[in-house]
Amino acid sequence: MPHAVVVVDVNDDNKPDIVVANHKSNTTGVLLNIGNGTFFPQVSYSVGKFPASVAVADINSDNKSDIVTADWNSNTLSVLLNIGNGTFSSRTNYPVGVMPRSGTLVDLNSDNQPDIVVANQGAVFISVLLNIGNGTFSSQTDYLVGSATYAVAVADMNGDNKPDIVTAHGASNIISVLLNKGNGTFSLTGYVVGVAPMSVTVGDLNNDNKPDIVSASSASNTVSVLLNTGNGTFPLQVTYLVGAFPYAVAVADINSDNKPDIVTANMNANTVSVLLNKGNGTFFPQTIYAVGGVPQSVAIADVNSDNKPDIITANSGSHTISVLLQC
């Protein structure tokens, strides 16, 4: 049951591969790219119980892509180091909060090493684990954000060259923005969005060099777009209709016009929605494409080397990955 997907080159052949978190089998699966947009069968590696998300980055500075899963039912992270040619070591586990639902890898303390930020669904805090430098991590530091944190993203939201944190809270219909004060603390502001936001991402949607916020509101079948005023505040959301129960959202330039577009995975419709950017941070109505059963994650990458971004979904209901090659 693939619950999450990322697409990244893990074996250094300049072809993006697929990495999934398999929720029921307690594994992460790696599908290496054959080179024409098709993939070898997955090779599975054991992780913690019910991995809900997966992230990939070079954790130990050896120029190889490593894997981190957030293990929802064991309250841990699993870290698997790449030992070369796209194979991985046995996992190392790190405790985090209750029901870790999402994790991202980003350098928080300017030491050029990716740290881990975790959204804990069953706690009122997020967890931060700093990279020690040899592929291991410090014990967690927790930051209060609110309940039912389903997703997390990191970017410099107010232009002060410090990474800030954005979280989605599925029970309170809130997106929280934690601005980095630079002394290891954050100031928190909440913004109301649609009902039950399950996913959040950031990107510059209106070409003003400021990161904006996009959240997928599952119970209202919408995405919310919050444009950045420039100082890390987001006073007004604009909503767009997508498919039934959007569980995940991604932002990328789909049609090569240098404007980031929005893609959602619609869990109850077995579809993805593509919303093309008009150019000023507003979007055309959705175009819908069928995928496998119960898509719960979406990624965008050029998987067949034709310089066009393709769409990949993890379909937990059909136990498949869908690859939509752009024509």
TrEMBL record:
Transmembrane segments: none annotated. InterPro entries: FG-GAP (IPR013517), Integrin_alpha_N (IPR028994). Coiled coil: none annotated. Keywords: Signal. This is VCBS repeat-containing protein.
